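P.,

For your records, the input lines for the assembly:
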Amino acid sequence: MGSIKLDGLKKAFGSQTVIPDANLEIADGEFVVFVGPSGCGKSTLLRLIAGLEEPTDGRILIDGRDVTHAAPARRKLAMVFQSYALYPHMSVYQNIAFPLKMAGEKADVIRVRVQEVATSLDLLPYLERRPRALSGGQRQRVAIGRAIIRQPAGFLFDEPLSNLDAALRVSMRTEISELHRRLRSTMIYVTHDQVEAMTMADRIAVMNAGRIEQFDTPLELYRRPANMFVAGFIGSPKMNFIEGARAREYDARTIGIRPEAIDWSIDSGKWRGRVERVEHLGAETVVHLSLDTADILTFRTPLDERLVAGRTIHVSPREDSIYRFDGEGRAIPGPKRNP
Amino acid sequence: MRSLRPTLFKAAMTFLGWAVALLLFFPILWTVLTSFKSEVEAIAFPPAFWPSGWTLENYFEVQERSEYFGHFLNSVALSLGSTVIGMLIAIPAAWSMAFQPAASTRHVLMWMLSTKMMPAVGALVPVFLIFKSAGLLDTLPGITLIVLVGNLPIMVWMLYTYFKEIPADILEACRMDGATVWKELVHVLLPMSLPGVASTMLLNIILAWNEAFWTLSLTAVKAAPLSAFIASYSSPQGLFWAKLSAASTLAIVPILIIGWISQKQLVRGLTFGAVK
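Structure tokens returned:
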């Protein structure tokens, strides 16, 4: 039980509108990621759902129940904060037990539940420790423990991994996905990291300037971005955008080509350019090429030692992988017109 | 030569530290020493540093002439009463200003502080007249009320500063976990700001204990705390330095002991958040 519906949700701080009009339907048990650049309103949207911010207009429904003005605790949602927000003066045990204690649960029930949760999160040896005596990953697990102990209808994660180092981030990512598979409850996860979004989400809401630009599965976002913002945000390195005569050839204001959809050759190809910079990542090489116009084209290719800065080469985009956008930046659907 | 300069500097600073400490402590030491002298020796010139014959006579006489213990109890009641009631008002006030600030919060804080910048004597006549018509002159509730009101701005300011140090995330987590405002206060906010709360209380106890202006103006016999009791030894009949010193020593000893025991806590609280 944990479907969440946002209906015309609006949030303004004074005269500044942060979320103009958010509409979203999240199914029960779904793992949804809000992704976008910093300041795009994704955290505000999460806080509105949590009840930590009061919406200016619109409604929030959880399981069909209108909770727009309900107190955070009454929404049956648990939240994991970026800073973990553990209670520093309490032991791990007391931190995890806190929500049950607030709910007036009996002491022996609490003890059993804390044991269960601590076991599932490998926290048993640390129950008596204070948060400051734990590592970052352990603190994160305590925060998760505190969230799951209440068996909430849904979980809200606010950039929970951004304080961890890269290796730990990967393993915690797996742990959270595993948690979702085990609990099958609704999760909303906010991040600015598109890799986290792509690897964890059932569906992703890509946000920009307070608007939800597109809400779809990771692969659909990659394959069929609704506009230039989504096309540029999903995928790494970023999609190449080319305007002018080359785009007009395809009947579009702008065309987009993913770095992985470009073939190159020394002596022949559609466009000619000079290699500006070569980044050897080991398994693959990322090449930045300046075309004879001002356009810079980035593409990735298997390691090849003939690719050196200053060399002139030829490239050809794969015709079936060219995205077309109109003057407003919206994707133009339909088959690509070959010249 | 190179290693001599830091050593010299350190020695000079140590000397300076001791000099300042002695300068500050000397009046207290002198009071205590004088309290063990005879009245004649106390006004002798040139003054003798050590009492020639250590005597407890002054203490006996002070206790005989004026009921020390009664005044002591008044001081305790005044300090604790104004502190406890003050905290009950200051904690909610500081909470709302720190966590639910309105556009005018900063102005309210400044306005509260500005009342401490006005000389208390400016309000004496109206306060005296109000107290007179309300029948509060020389009563414990009356003097507690005025000391409480006088110290409230400091308490609110201090608590506000400590509360501001608590990360907003933690209080939000608390709300997500289902805590009411009251539970949030009891289980999270107060334990987390304990050093600050303790030093606010301590400072207020000390301020109330040492309050002399209002106690001298608004109490006489029944409600007079130790600060008023000392002053009764500088009377129109003349100054009795030795007895005055004995009375002063008796008055400051309790607060000196409290201060001594809690100085670590007090310093920690007063510098809370200064170094992070």
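Two observations worth noting. Chain A touches chain B through 23 residues (CB under 8 Å). The two ends of chain A are 53 Å apart (CA to CA).

Regards
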